[in-house]
Each structure stands twice: as C-alpha cells, then as structure tokens.
Amino acid sequence: MTPDTILDPDAELVRQAAQGDRHAFDVLVRRYESQIFNLARAMTRGDDEADDLAQEAFVRAYRAIRSFRGDSLFRTWLYQVTVNVVRTHLSSRSRWRRLWSTPVEAGADEDGDAAALATPGFEDDVVRRDTIDRALAGLPEDLRVAVTLRDIQGLDYREIAETLQVPMGTVESRIFRARQRLRTLLAPLLGRGAGAPALARPAVAAGDEG
C-alpha cells in the first residue's frame, strides 16, 4: 500500500463502492460532481454537453471502480477517467464535423462556471465568471486543462502529471504558459495589475499545494 492510499480521504468509500455499495459511490459523486463538471466544461470550452460528459465519467468510474488499485489518489484516477471520456468525445465530434463539413462554433458559452474569481456582488461575480470563462476558452486544450487542474481544482503538480500522463516538467511548462496568457487577458479587465489571476478553487480542499 502506498502513502497516497493510506492518506486518501476517499479510501473507505472507494472500498465500500468496490464491494457494491451504491450509497458509498453516491457520496463520492456528490463530493466531486462540481469539480468533474468544471473539468469537462473547461476541456470543451463551455460545451453544452459538459454535464452529460461528467455523468458519463461517473458511470465509467462506477463500472471500473473494482479495478482501481489505489496506486494514486481516487480523485486523480477519477480525473483520468474524465479526461479520457472528454477526449474521446472531442475526437468523435471532430471526425463527425470533418465528415459533414460543419463549422466549429466560435467562442465559448457565456454562462459562468466555477472558474470565477471569488468576489461579492451578483453582477460583478457574473461578469468576472464570464471574463475568466472566455479567457480559459481561448487557451489551447493542453494549457487549459493543466491550469484548470492546478488553479481551479487545486491538484498538485504530481497529481496533474499522473492525470494527464505527462512528465512533471511538461506540466510545469504548460501551467506557466497558461498563466502568462491569462495574465495578459485578465489583468487589464479585472484590475489585478501584473500578478497572475487568482482563480477560485472548490470549497472542499482538493490537495496539497504544488
């Protein structure tokens, strides 16, 4: 058993779910549903199907949970499942569009998401959410996913490397480049000066700092 397995706050629920306890898995779903939805949304640039993709990720995870060996944190494994589900969706959609010569939609959905800056006031919150949503949508997928996992989901660099199955140095490079681009896009609009944008994280602590 690895240190991560021992310290995994989801370990007991995962064990129960693997034994067929549906209630235990439902608790895991409630614990991570917003994070998984926001990851799917970030990867699809605000795709209307993000909710369906998040549900599909949980279905896949439930079916495969008995194969989870605890070599990583459960949430890391769950993020891997989600990334694979969304990438399969995007690949299939791309092939379909090429077949029918359907133009790709420009821009992102304008609804706010959990990538908003934590600020008081409904109107300001909506504006900031929309601004960050648009900025994230403008990033290449590899940068967008990396910075979402780090600055929104709160994963450390090692977890992100495991989730995306890339070297740690690649993760660091992607996050650095994503933050540089976001700084340019968001600093003038949000009045935060030259500092990197502070993206909101889930209310529940999601991991150690990287």
List key phrases describing it:
210 residues; disordered N terminus; disordered C terminus; mainly alpha; Rna Polymerase Sigma Factor, Chain: A
Topology summary:
Blueprint: H1 3-7, H2 11-18, H3 22-43, H4 50-64, H5 74-100, H6 122-137, H7 141-152, H8 157-164, H9 168-190
Helix pairs in contact: 2-3, 3-4, 3-5, 3-7, 4-5, 5-8, 6-9, 7-9, 8-9
Provide a descriptive summary of the structure in words.
Helices cover 65% and strands 0% of the residues. It contains nine helices and no strands. With 210 residues, the chain is mainly α. The protein has a domain at 3-100: RNA polymerase sigma factor, region 2, helix turn helix motif (Rna Polymerase Sigma Factor, Chain: A), CATH 1.10.1740.
Q: Which structural class do you get from the secondary structure elements?
A: mainly alpha
Separation of the first and last Cα atoms: 23 Å
- At the first level of CATH, the class of one domain is Mainly Alpha
- Beta-strand content: under 5%
Q: Helicity range of the residues?
A: 55-70%
Radius of gyration: 17 Å
Q: Give me the CATH architecture of one domain, please.
A: Orthogonal Bundle
**Could you please say which CATH topology of one domain applies here?**
Rna Polymerase Sigma Factor, Chain: A
Element order: H for helix, E for strand: HHHHHHHHH
